[in-house]
Structures are given as C-alpha cells and as structure tokens.
Amino acid sequence: MKRKHGEDETTAIADESTLDSNSSFSSLGLDARLLQGIAKLNFAHPTLVQAKAIPLALEGKDILARAKTGSGKTAAYLLPILQAILKRKESSPDEKFTSALVLVPTRELAQQVHRTTEKLAAYCAKEIRAVNIAQNVSEQVQQSLLAERPDIVIATPSRALVHSNLSAHVLTSKVTHLVIDEADLVLSYGYDDDLQAVAKALPKGLQTFLMSATLTAEVETLKALFCRSPVILRLEENEAEDGEGVSQFVVKCGEDEKFLLAYVIFKLKLIKGKCIIFVGDIDRCYRLKLFLEQFGIRSCVLNSELPVNSRLHIVDEFNKNVYEIIIATDENEILGDEDEEDEGRELDENEATPHRASKALNDEVKGIEVAVSKMSLKKKRRKVRRDKEYGVSRGIDFQNVACVLNFDLPTTSKSYTHRIGRTARAGKTGMALSFAIPAELFRKHKPTSFSTCGNDEKVLAKIIRHQKKRGKEVKPYHFDMKQVDAFRYRMDDALRAVTRVAIREARTREIRQELLASEKLKRHFEENPEDLIHLRHDGELRAARIQPHLKHVPDYLLPTTGKAVLSSGSLDSTGRGGFVGIRKSSDNRIRKARMKKTGKAGGKSAGAGGRDPLKMFRGGKK
Predict the structure, then answer these.
(1) 51 Rama sector, left if φ>0, alpha if ψ -120 to 50, beta otherwise
(2) What is the pLDDT of residue 521?
(3) 497 and 585 in contact (C-beta within 8 Å)?
(4) What is the C-alpha separation between 370 and 385, in angstroms, rounded?
(5) Residue-wise DSSP of 144-213
(6) CA distances in angstroms from 564 to 33, 260, 418, 476, listed in the order given
(7) Is 44 strand, coil or helix?
(8) What is the spatial distance between Cα 150 and Cα 104, in angstroms, rounded to a whole number?
(9) How many other CB atoms are found less than 10 A from the CB of residue 404?
C-alpha cells in the first residue's frame, strides 16, 4: 500500500506509564469554553490517553494511540481539534471550511462521536459546528449539510468517499485534521478501497489521529498510508485504577440447556443489573426473544436489519435504564485470534485462513435476505437490506452493563475480548458468562442447534489461553442441574411454541413496526420529543403461541432451601445474589379465577381449546 508521506519516518514510542495525580484539564492549555464543556460532562481529571495525547496533539504531531475501550480516546482527539478550530477562528472569523474529518467504522459510533462533539463544544456552539453524514438520510440532505461548511464532519469511509467524489472542494479541499477511530476495525469491515480513494482526495500535510484498542497489522497499514512520523502511544490503565474488571465464567451445557439456563437466570433474577446477550445470527435474536416472552421476560433485539434510527434509540434508552436486556447479533465479527506476546504482528496465514473461510461461509448463509412484506396485488416480497455499517461489540458506549452473556460463543478470541469489553467500564466491575457446547453434545438437539457451536471447545481453549496471558482467568461455573431440571418441561413447552413460522412472523412484524417508527414518525418525534417515552422496543411480538401459565413460577418448582442452590455460587462478582430489574407481574389470581368462572357461565370457557378469542383477535386479518 502506497505511503502518503514518504518513507523516512521516525517513530517515538511512549511506553506504559502512570498518570500524574496532579494533572488536570486546565493544565493542558485548553480554551475556557472547552473547559466548561468538560466540566458539564463531569470529567474530573484527564484519563491516561488524554493526558498523554492532548499535549502532543496541540504541538501538531500525528498520534497513533492504543488504549483500551472506554479509556477516553474520543475526547483525546476531539479536544485538540476543537482547540485548533477556535484558535483559527480568532484570527480569521469569516473564513468557513471543513477543518476535521472523523472516520469511524459504524453508524452507531458516528452518532456517538457526534454527540460527544456537541457536548464538548456546548459553550462555543456558535463558533463550531459538527455534522454526521453517516446518518440515514438522503444524499441531497447530506449535500446541503456539507454546503454550509461545517467545521467537523463525521462519517464512515464509504460515505466520505461518496461526498468527496460529489463535492471534493467542500469536504476535503482544506481539511487540516484527519481522525480514524477504531482503526483496527476499519479495514476489518472492508473499507480498504474506500480509504485508498479518500487518501488520494485529502491534501498533504494534515495532522492525523489513529485511535485503536489494539495495534494490529491493519493499524500498521493505515499508519503507512496516512501518518508522517507519528508518536505511538501504547498505554495501559493501572488495573488498580480501573477496578476489579470483568469476572469471567463459562458454563458447558447442551444446546437446549442454553435456553433452560437463560430462563432460570432471568426468571429467578440470578443476575444483578443490565445485560447484553450476544447470539449468532438474527434468527437466534428472535428465537430467544420469543422464548423469553413466554415467561413474561421482556427484552429488545439489536441487529443490522433494524433501521439505524431505531438502533440508536435502543442504545440510548438502554443507557437510560428503560430496558434491562438487549439481545444483539455480532454480525461483523472480528477475524483472527489474539497473541498478547506480539500484539503488533501480522496474523499467521495458517491461523487466519480457517476463520476467514468460516466467516465467508457464515456471511454467505447470512446474506440471504428476508422478505418483510407482501405487495397486495402481485404478492411480491419486499426485501430488507442489512446494514454493513452496523456493529455493537466495539466502540459503542453501553453504560452500566452488569453482565455480558455469550449465549452463542464467538468464533475468535479477539471477538470474545471485544464483547466482554461492553461491561466493567469506567472503573466499574462486571461479569461475562459464556455458554459452550461440548463436542459430544453438538447436534444432539437439532431444533436449537447452531452451526458454529461445533467449534466451541477449540475456541474456548484459545479464549482461556489468551485471557491467561492477560492475567485473567475464565472460571468454570456449575449449575445444580438436578434442581434446574424441574424447570425443563416448561422450557420444552416454550420452545415448541417458538416455531420457524413464529420467528419469521416476529422478524417481519418487528421490521415493519420499526420502519414506521423510524421513518414516518421521525418528524413527529422531533417536534414532540416527550412522545418518545411511549415508543418502546421491548414489547411482546406475540408471534408465538401464548401460554400464560409459563409466566408464573409455582412454588413447588423452587428448591426448599432457596434459589441459591441452583448454582455453585452467586453470578455476580460481589458474592451476593442479584437481580435483573424486570417489571413484576400485576396479575391477580383471584380476579383470574372469577373471570374464568364468568366465562364458563356463558356456556363456553374463555380458555377452551387453549385460546382466548379476544386475545387472539387481530385487527385487519382473517
């Protein structure tokens, strides 16, 4: 790959170091208005990456920083850029042009960076304007936004390429700062050609920031393409400053037992706090959601088929504690396995190829698009395209996540590391619980089987080996299956109701609902933001056969000594039994009995045949 700035570069390396306890943002020489924005965000002291990167960036040096997820990399590059823009506008206030281009791999991350920019520049909003052209609007709207010469443009590489071709003089002619956030993911997401083309359109001599959680071969490629003598910061937060981190557990179980344990964990509230459940594909999202619905457990799904506005709203509401459980796919999974002894090395071909082949096969299977509606006359199916710029396992700031549940184990140790990074952020503790299928139990329960689970033992061995190199331990976790088996017949009833037809209908209905809420009601919500309170993403899809008795756990199923005996210990790292804040059922058994009796008095039971005709009524359908 061709270098943009010549071959004679010298690299300064800042090794791991400790942060001066007396450091503050005011000591970095930032504008007073930026300091006010920082104070509004309640940032007391700069993080390690901020304290090291900001002074170097203010000197005009290129920065290549490796710091873990949640360490404050976004503010580390935004603050120097905002400072440079304010300084420029003091000398030439009437000159308008785009000074900074921020490239990110996903639309979700673009929205997050845009919001952080607005918050940091809250007290200088008249002087600085940032736009996000990765959002789901037409090219004409994006062109009009760029025509106003915003100071900062946030985009994915593909979107930046489109507008550099349409209006190069607007987007790239006078850019002085370039940022590539989550640089190790950008090439993994297939943006190679886009970045090559964008690099040709950018002027020479601009200041570059490459921010990444790892220094991989992809980052080295980007460094050669964009940087000139960058300062490389390899930074690790002090473990004592970052809390106890993630407690990691693995449960070896059968394929159907995944659903059984998920039911027991959430219904009996064995996990404390909010949870993100990672599954293998979109169908698994809806299978698990419909399964949990049978027991009155509410959750919302997050995948690439949903409109981008809905995805962003789900993340926002999750961070505001509106939802307790998100079931997410990890479709743009990170390829390759990690080697901490030589993190900057290129992936060994023999090691990478099987994963790439497996991923290519999975992508081919997942590439079959699902029909979501029928045209009234010709009965044609209208297909939904999945968003290639979707990703939740890296970069997105999920707040206060207590547990990451790997319902389906990822195919690489690197992807596992990124998934569990959604918890234990900002000095807090968290837990990662993974289900793994032993080889002898694979394909033993075909209705719940998933193709990649056949390699769980090999992947788990790599995960344990890599975590051990990091000084972490993946501990085995044992449930008392004799006690758990009492719930098995209820699991079987629920799984029988979650058929392929039910999953397809749920998937179709969800997309229709979200498209309506995302597009047709967008302007209404902009004018009436309080109405967003009533827009929920965790409602019951009701595509599966409803079995009300499953929502109640009878006392005879519970162990006489308490639910703690179901497991070998508490699932949270504090040693205490926790809970998921699911809303309690308000059903009144006495009232139910009266209603049932009333129904029989009318000559026919309301529950005859296992169905309530009123509940089964669907408007507009026969």
Answers:
(1) alpha
(2) 53
(3) no
(4) 8
(5) HHHHT--SEEEE-HHHHHHHHHH-HHHHTTT--EEEEETHHHHTTTT-HHHHHHHHHHSPTT-EEEEEES
(6) 53, 17, 30, 17
(7) coil
(8) 18
(9) 26
- Tell me how far apart the alpha carbons of residues 117 and 385 are, in angstroms, rounded to a whole number: 30
For residue 608, what are the CA distances in angstroms to 18, 242, 548, 595?
Answer: 70, 58, 14, 13
What single-letter amino acid sits at 255? Answer: E
Helix (H, G, I), strand (E, B) or coil at 334: coil
For residue 372, the model assigns a pLDDT of 33
Cα-based angle 324, 325, 331 (whole degrees, multiple of 5): 145
Cα distances (Å, whole numbers) of residue 233 to 74, 75, 222: 15, 15, 15
Alpha-carbon span 375 to 393, nearest angstrom: 36
Nearest to 416 by CA among 361, 363, 470: 470
Closest CA to 409 of 279, 559, 269: 279
Please give the Cα distance from 116 to 354 (Å, whole number): 39
Q: Which domains does the chain have, with CATH numbers?
A: 12-234 (3.40.50.300), 246-334+380-566 (3.40.50.300)
Would you state the pLDDT for residue 42? 87
Name the CA dihedral angle for 488, 493, 494, 497, rounded to a multiple of 10 degrees.
Answer: 150
Quote the CA–CA distance of 278 and 331 in Å, as a whole number: 10
What one-character DSSP code corresponds to residue 295?
T
Q: What is the pLDDT of residue 616?
A: 43
Q: Which residues contact 181 (CB under 8 A, 6 or more apart)?
A: 73, 74, 77, 102, 103, 104, 105, 109, 113, 211, 395
Q: Do residues 360 and 301 touch, judged by C-beta distance below 8 A?
A: no
Question: DSSP characters for 339-408?
Answer: -GGGTTSPPPHHHHHHHHHHHHHHHHHHTSPPEEEE-TTT-PEEE----TT---SSS----SEEEEEESS
**Nearest 5°: phi and psi at 252?**
-90, 125
Stretches where the chain sits below pLDDT 70 are 1-22, 69, 166-170, 236-244, 332-395, 426-427, 516-545, 560-565, 567-622
- DSSP string for 120-152: HTGGGTTT--EEETTSSS-HHHHHHHHHT--SE
What distance in Å separates the CA atoms of residue 92 and residue 99, rounded to the nearest whole number? 13
Burial of 136 (0-12, 13-18, 19+ CB in 10 A): middle
| Token digits of residue 565 | 């005996």
Residue with tokens 């719930």: 487
In sequence order, what are the residues at sequence separation of 6 or more whose Cβ sits closer than 8 angstroms to the Cβ of residue 161?
Answer: 194, 197, 198
**Spatial contact of 180 and 230, defined as CB atoms under 8 Å apart:** no
